[in-house]
Design a protein that fits this description.
Helix 5 packs antiparallel against helix 6 and helix 11 packs across helix 13. This protein starts with a strand and ends with a helix. The strands form two sheets. The protein has a seven-stranded parallel sheet with strand order 3-2-1-4-5-6-7. A six-stranded parallel sheet has the order 10-9-8-11-12-13, with helices on both faces. It is α/β, with parallel strands linked by helices.
């Protein structure tokens, strides 16, 4: 049985959004492939033991994140320096098993001599300095904008540590091209994101159990992320007023801020928008499956948005995305793609389409043929 250490940037359970989905279902796939997995994960506020995570691993070690303003006084990126722990280094160096570092966040010890003999994989969810530059553009807070710009500079500088990786696992082919051009000495491979492939095909819910009697368009995401908050602002201000009184919007996601709550409850949105805050996974899946149209919008074209995959595996209605949301043209077969200015007219067109579980089933088959099938063979070679 092959043994592998996996260093996670955050406790990947529950896998509700973004990189946590990719991390958790990759661990699950490794476990099901017979790999002995040793998980090392960083967490906030002490140990947060998760039995669901421990069921997939022979051992799980939890490390505190060392946060605070003092960590900003360094050339190391904050997301890297706050994930430094000498005990992690000693445990990784105690045997010859390969290591999978999840994200640049966890690569503090990638170049350390104690790990020189080990085979080292790095999973890159984004080109991180580009991602943080995008966060700076989106931020409405001047202090946050300054932090994101500083972190982007530090990440660009730190990214050179990838020269010490044996294999770089990019999440899209566009990202892979970036890493191949920068680090020709590394073996750069594209590994599509991992997600829940076992979720059953959705059954349509009774209209009475759904917002607006089941007649709604949906935007969903982690609402604490400024990229997603800006997406909601765009949809409410520039798309919703053009849809008419008969097409309401449901916004669903975790940790919506006070500003977003106030905007969605204001007189301008009253009656046409409903916020579903902190839904369970089951509630979110039900909302996606039963939406007449799911709206996918971003102004930050980095990596791949896991909500795109989540939506395509669950939606029985139509899916409308802008070009920045689509990682490559193959996804144009699975959803409607439009410029932002065309969103209102396309929503009105798609609103007339009936819900179809068969459409959902077909999308799943297409995703599988595109390589979105939780294949861990790259990691086990």
């Amino acid at each position: 049985m092959m043994k592998m250490h996996v260093v996670c940037f955050q406790v990947p359970y529950p896998p509700l959004y973004g990189g946590l989905i990719d991390e958790y279902y990759k661990l699950k796939a490794l476990h099901e492939a017979g790999c002995e997995v040793v998980v090392h994960t960083f967490c906030y506020g002490g140990s947060r033991r998760r039995k669901e995570l421990e069921a997939l691993a022979s051992e799980v070690f939890y490390y505190p994140r060392h946060t605070g303003w003092m960590r900003q006084l360094s050339f190391l990126p904050y997301i890297v320096g706050s994930r430094s722990d000498e005990l992690l280094l000693r445990r990784l160096g105690a045997d010859d098993a390969p290591v999978l570092f999840e994200g640049l966040h966890t690569c503090r010890y990638l170049s350390h001599p104690a790990l020189a003999r080990k085979r080292k994989f790095v999973r890159m969810h984004n080109v991180e300095h580009e991602y943080y530059a995008g966060l700076a553009r989106n931020s409405r807070s001047f202090p946050r904008k300054c932090y994101y710009l500083l972190e982007s500079w530090r990440l660009r500088r730190f990214e050179g540590v990838l020269r010490h990786a044996d294999v770089i696992l990019a999440i899209t082919e566009a990202d892979a091209s970036h890493f191949r051009s920068k680090y020709p000495m590394a073996d750069v491979r594209t590994l599509p994101c991992f997600f829940d492939t076992d979720i059953p095909l959705p059954a349509l819910a009774a209209p009475s159990s759904l917002p607006f009697g089941g007649n709604y368009v949906l935007y969903q995401g982690n609402l604490s992320v400024e990229e997603n908050e800006e997406a909601v602002r765009f949809l409410v201000r520039h798309v919703l007023p053009s849809l008419g009184d008969e097409i309401p919007l449901v916004v669903a996601g975790h940790n919506p801020g006070a500003g977003l709550r106030k905007m969605l409850s204001g007189k301008r949105a009253l009656g046409k928008v409903r916020l579903v805050a902190d839904p369970s996974k089951e509630e979110m899946d039900m909302l996606v499956a039963n939406a007449r149209v799911v709206l996918l919008y971003t102004n930050q074209p980095t990596g791949i948005k896991l909500k795109l995959i989540h939506t395509l595996t669950l939606a029985c209605g139509e899916v409308l995305a802008n070009h920045a949301m689509i990682p490559d043209t193959s996804f144009e077969l699975l959803c409607e793609v439009a410029d932002e200015d065309d969103f209102p007219s396309r929503v009105r067109q798609l609103w007339q389409s009936p819900l179809s579980p068969e459409r959902c089933k077909w999308r799943r088959q297409q995703l599988h043929s595109m390589g979105y099938c939780n294949d861990v063979s790259i990691l086990l070679r």
